[in-house]
Amino acid sequence: MDYDFSGWATRNDLLCGDGRTIRKNAFIENDGETVPLIYNHDHSNPDAVLGHALLQNRDEGVYAYCKFNDTESGQHAKELVKNGDVRSLSIYANKLKQIGRDVIHGSIKELSLVLAGANPGAYIDFVMAHGDDEEDGLYANYDESALVLYHSDSSAKKEEKEMKEEKNKTPESNDKGDEKTVQDVLDTFNDEQTKVLYALIGQALQDAGVEPEDLEDDEEGDDEDMKHNVFDNDVQTSQNVLTHADQEAIIELAKSKNVGSFQSALELYAEDHLAHGIDSIETLFPEYELTNPGAPEMLTRDQTWVESVLSKAHKSPISRIRTRHADVRAEDIRAMGYKKTKEKQLIANLKLLNRTTDPQTVYVKDKLERDDIIDITDFDVVEYQRKIMRMALNEEIAKAILIGDGREEGDEGKIQETHIRSIWKDEDLYTIRADVDVAAAKKELQGSNTSANFGENYVYAEAIITAALYAREKYKGSGSLDFYCTPHLLNVMLLARDLNGRRIYDSKSDLAAALNVADIKTVEQFEGKTRTTSDGKTKKLLGLFVNMSDYQIGSTKGGEITNFEDFDIDFNNYKYLMETRLSGALTKAFSAIALEEPVAEAEVSG
User: Strands 314-316 and 351-357, how do they pair?
Assistant: First the structure.
């Protein structure tokens, strides 16, 4: 036939956005029929009719050969399809028969071009070129993964729903508000539960002498109602069958405050009212459903500080870092007055301080079975795994920069601090160390009356601020500092109160101003971190003051973060590697402050 494009109107066995699944041959009666082709299910506008579509029932679904009208709207739509601007198809169907949420029969009334949909599978796969200057044939093959099936837009759904509600109104209608109907309960059953229920009821109907043909659907029946609702047949039987009366009783029981759930009500009713109960009654319960479909939600530590460290650090294309300083602080490096006839003296020699830092490769490696990649269909597991790997790599590098990776010396996976130097454990030339003396702060603030004026949190906060500000007197770094500390330390300082219960610092910005820093970042990884000094004392880390622009991260071309992928044909799995080669070190003397608290020997031994 002469057509402008073709594609899938529906595809079988795919879950739609409205919760329905179209089964094979559900629209077999439409095979060979021609239906209108319109735009976006617009039934109110004649200009929305774009042409017509010839439907062909196939094993995979319903295929459509479409022809545009020689009208302004038809030709405009033709150009949209030809350019690939619109490439999704959607059906409008009624006279639906359903088993649960499975559509097993229906009648397609029109086919629409739509912008978006709700189910993968309905898409245009051939566009014919019929111009005088073009050869007939395939014009474009669109990516199936990007296209979806869309049953109808919101206005069409509303219109259809209103028509059906009006049609279903009868004198016997019972408006129960939000109470569940028989159909509502049945809609929660999956395929296995539905089959078990129908098997029980079918056996009961057979024993009662009711033939299957007696249950045929009325062709003019309601579109949405499930035509195989056997609860509508008032058949009395002594078998293990849930009759209409049973079902109503179970729903009423579920509403009881003493029961509380449909599952509990079903179990209780089966135990008390059915002659022999129901074998494997758990098969009738609804399936568990994910609250958040798709990729699993990640439980992570706070990552905001990681971005702050990596983004603010100075980046260099040189991976072998050398720093050099001349120490001119000696007392005898000074000018002198001249006395006649006396020889002029030389100043003391300058002391040169220098160090070098070489790069080290840091990596994350993982693998996925190919079978698992294929079987996991509700999200992209490969992209999900790469996201986890990148997050782990960034966090480890940022942690190594601030406090080191924490692994013991000799561990194969340790990031050596001669390659990425941690600010906390750096040499005294680069990192100033300040101890927090809480006892001295308490004595200074409160004298001998230790409980009359301020709360304990205020004393601790003042001890922190005092130690930080005094340490700033030795600071030689550049720009404004950021304060990286434990979440607990931040909360202790924010909860500082006077004796009347009034908070001393109303917000984090007020506290930052008191500390004379640009921002405060909390780092969960600081919790419980201690180091041992050269004289054997233990110090607990409270926080670091640093301007990250004084820390240089060096990486030559090719050493940036790179992804590698390999397939192991023997073991049928994909291996993924993410790595970088870099160095890191403070490049300015006295450019960071480590705030620490001495740990008593009793605490260390305990």
Answer: unpaired
